[in-house]
Structure formats: C-alpha cells, structure tokens
Amino acid sequence: MARRRRRRRAGSGVAGDPLVARLRGIVGPVQVLTDAEMRASYETDWTRRFGAPSRAVVRPGSADEVASVLAACNEARVAVVPQGGNTGLVGGSVPRGGEVVLSTKRIAALDEMDPVTAQVIAGAGMTAAALNELASPYGLRLGVDLASRDSATIGGMAATNAGGINVLRYGMMRAQVGGMEVAFADGSVVSRMSGVGRDNTGYDLPGMIVGSEGTLGVVTALRLRLVPVLPSRAVALLAFDSLEAAIGVALNARNEVADLQAAELFFATGLELVLKHTGLAAPFTERWPFYVLLEAASRMDAASGLADALVNAAGVRDSALATEARDRMRLWAYRERHTESISSVGVPHKLDVALPLGRLREFVERVGPLLSDLSENAMPILFGHIAEGNVHVNVLGFEEDDERPDDAVLRLVASLGGSISAEHGVGVAKRKWLELTRSAADIAAMRAVKDGLDPGWIMNPGVILQRHAG
Ligand SMILES: Cc1cc2nc3c(=O)[nH]c(=O)nc-3n(C[C@H](O)[C@H](O)[C@H](O)COP(=O)(O)OP(=O)(O)OC[C@H]3O[C@@H](n4cnc5c(N)ncnc54)[C@H](O)[C@@H]3O)c2cc1C
C-alpha cells in the first residue's frame, strides 16, 4: 500500500519531461501542476493514510481534453489516477508514486436541467451539494446523500457507486445514473446520454463503469435521475441498552414507516468522540450504549407516521423527535460528525463492510473482542447504514502499516457471508482481500474487462486489481 510517510519529490526535474510538455499543450500550461506545494492537496487522501508524490497534476476542462490527456499518457505508458473531490476513503484517489493525477474539478458545468423528466446532465466534477443547489428551485435533488456532499463529485460518486444515508429509499448511485459520457485510455469517448427510458442495445457500459473506481475510464459527464425534495421531514434519535432491540427497532421501521428514508446505527464510543470533538451537548441526560437515528420525509406530516410507528417500539430507553430544520440537523450531527471526530484523534483503519441482516448482531458482538485480542490499544468505533447491514468499522490504536486489524475484520465479514466493500470501494486498501469474497473465475472475468478496455493498465493500476496476480 502507498503510505503517506513514503514521500519523495516525484514532480521535480520535470523541466525536460516530454509528457508534461505534451500535457501543457493539451490543457494549457497553468492547468498542469508540477510544483510540490501546488500538488500537495491532490496527493494526500482524506484519511491521511494514503498518498505519494505524482509526476504532475493535470486539470482538463472538457471531455476532449480528458481524452487527449489519456491518449498521451497511454502512449507514454504513464499511469493516471482520476480524482474528483478526493473524499474517497480507500486510497484510490491519490497516487502511489509517479502517476499523473487527472482532476475533474474544472469539468463541472450544468448542461441541462429537465424538471419534466426530473433529470439533469452535468459535468463529472460538479459536487453533490452544487447539483442539489441547482436542482432545488425545481423541487428536486439527487437521491444519494452523504456527509461529504460539499466536496464529493458526481463523477467520483458514480465511480465508487456511492451509497450514503438514503439508500433504503432511493438505492445507490448506480440507480441514479440514466446516462454517461466516459473517456477511455486510448483517447476514445463513449457517450450514452439519450435518456431513453428503455434502451437495451448491447452491454450496459455505464452500469459497468459505475463502481469501477477509475480503473476502466474517466467519467466526464452524467445524466442523473433526480428525486423530489420532500418538505415535511422528521428525525428520531432513539437510545437502547440492548443491541438486539436497537437492530430490531431499526429494521422494523423499514416495514412500518412508509416514508422512512434513513436508518442509522451508532454506539456510545463514537458518540463520546463526537461530543468531545464538536462540543455538542449530549442528546440525553443518561448515556446509553446503542443509538438508532431514523428519518422520514413526505409531502405532508412525516412526523406522525414516524411517531406512530415508534409508540410501541420495544426496548427504547430514551428518545428525541425533531421536525424543525435546526433540531433535525442537531440530531443528524451526532451521526454525521463521526468520521471527522474519529480522524481528529488518529489515523483509523477504515473498513466499510456489509453483513447479511441476520448476522449483523453477531458481527458487532464479535468484532470488538477480535481486535482486543490483537492489541490492548485496539479501539473500534462502529457506525453505519443499518437497513442494508452496512457497518463502518473504524479501528484506532494500530500502526498505519499494521494489516492485522484489516485482515481480522475482513475475514470475519467473509466468514459470515458479508461483503468486504459496501460503498467506499476496494481501492488499494482492500485489494489484497478481494479473493475473500470473489472467486478465481470472477476475478478472471474482471481482469478480462480491464485488459479489454485498458490494455496498457494505465487507468488507476493497483486499485481493485494488481496487474500481475498477487
Ligand atoms: C465525511 C465523509 C463521509 C462519507 N460518507 C460516505 C457515505 O455515506 N457513503 C459513501 O458511499 N461514501 C462516503 N464517503 C466516501 C466518499 O465521499 C465517496 O466515496 C465519494 O463517492 C467519493 O467522491 P469523490 O468525488 O471525492 O471521489 P474521489 O475521492 O476523488 O475518488 C474516488 C474514486 O473514484 C475515482 N474517480 C473519481 N472521479 C472519477 C471520474 N470522474 N471518473 C472515473 N473515476 C473517478 C478515483 O480514481 C477513486 O478511485 C464519505 C467520505 C467522507 C470524507
């Protein structure tokens, strides 16, 4: 894995670099960054666990420029790391050493907003928050929502098949993609943007690019389906002293609350960190070990459906219900500020996994002791999107290079029939464990796709797959 501490000055000595000169000719001199200071923010990831110096950072402004940059790098057999908002958590958005970083941030224009079909066409570098701002006057928004919304780009979200907090209602990013423009390593551009509702003419290329983490091509534009902004929203925060009760109430809510759009689980350890880091007041006078946050949204009166369903919920020790925006945001903050609060005390091993719902409780009960057996300093902080069995296991207390916690947690997940990559992707962080949940035939098929679309393996090599087995 490329570690942050292995820094060297890859971009230095570029004065006579013919590739850099060619890239400058394509995008203009100011859009190719070679100075170490200018490159720095593109070379370290959000977790601070991954990153290394690049050869250069190139910032194309159109699909044609992206295609020309890829063709030039392909000819020179220099690897390319596509990068959107650089909020990825598995090390896939930053160089491992000497690659060209291709930033999509300048490709962020709104091309078409169609309120009738509730679809938008926009550049891949547009952030989710910017898209929502443009769609909001039409009463629309993107169906995928996540805490990194201010920086994460729609291209990066498609490339990782992002999930987030509303998956139980609207699905993951793949479900929002109605069309895509993508540039491949050979400099060709494929555009499937018609938006025709039923189109089964051959392979579903956009569907395959979604979740490919920059290893097959660069997404340059997207046609996205939007969902209505629902004006009535209600958030309930519930406290439990039993894990079984917490999981039971959250899963029951899926059936009982027609307007449910989020169901999140977190624990006392995470809440303590959030309170310390943010200075927020505790949600309840007493501290409880388990918390569930539920959100319902509808055109009218989301609160009554949520409250009715919770009136007889078993095992709830304390609760708060909020309908006003400020109060809802305060309750959400206890959950959404977990990631930054954890990062404020160390560099965690971040393991985003999913379990079959029937094994969720067993996983949560076993993962803590498993990590404590490895180190007395182990500090696991768990939270997640409970309706899909998605748990974010953050582990503090281990060296960044120590793979024992990753190995132990991912093997436990696989043994329980789960997925080692729920929504953040495989990146470089989990590549080594791909065989735990993908068969040899499955991996061979993925390699065949990679070989076909990127025969020189210049597109984000080392992410998901290593060129040579091992
Ligand atoms: C506070 C916080 C909360 C988060 N919450 C969630 C969550 O709830 N759900 C969730 O799914 N994720 C979450 N994430 C992770 C992250 O925000 C998502 O993975 C997001 O989709 C990444 O978008 P990005 O634009 O930042 O992509 P980047 O980080 O820049 O890149 C991510 C991957 O996509 C590739 N890529 C980027 N743009 C393109 C493109 N245009 N074409 C081809 N490949 C590309 C990169 O090469 C890399 O492999 C969170 C992150 C943070 C920091």
Descriptive overview:
With 470 residues, the protein is of the alpha+beta class. It has four domains: 18-103, Uridine Diphospho-n-acetylenolpyruvylglucosamine Reductase, domain 2 (2-Layer Sandwich), CATH 3.30.43; 110-228, Uridine Diphospho-n-acetylenolpyruvylglucosamine Reductase, domain 3; 232-339, 2-Layer Sandwich (Alpha-Beta Plaits); 346-427, Alpha-Beta Plaits (2-Layer Sandwich). 33% of the residues lie in helices and 21% in strands. The strands form three sheets. It has a seven-stranded antiparallel sheet, with helices on both faces. Strands 5, 6, 7, 8, 9 and 10 form a six-stranded antiparallel sheet that branches. Strand 8 and strand 9 form a beta hairpin. The radius of gyration is 22 Å and the shape is globular. The site of flavin-adenine dinucleotide (FAD) has 37 residues, from strand 3, helix 5 and strand 10. Residues 46, 81-89, 92-93, 104, 124, 146-148, 151-153, 155-157, 159-160, 162-164, 213-214, 218-219, 339, 423-424, 460, 463 line the site of flavin-adenine dinucleotide.
The CATH architecture term of the largest domain is: 2-Layer Sandwich
Strand order, largest beta sheet: 14-11-13-12-16-17-15
Named once each, the bound ligands are:
flavin-adenine dinucleotide
What's the alpha carbon Rg, rounded to whole Å? 22 Å
Share of residues in strands = 15-25%
Shape: globular
What is the terminal-to-terminal distance? 13 Å
CATH topology of the largest domain: Uridine Diphospho-n-acetylenolpyruvylglucosamine Reductase, domain 3
Total helical segments: 16
Count of discrete structural domains: 4
CATH class value of the largest domain: Alpha Beta
Instruction: List low-confidence stretches.
Output: none
Tell me the number of strands. 17
Structural class, from helix and strand content? alpha+beta
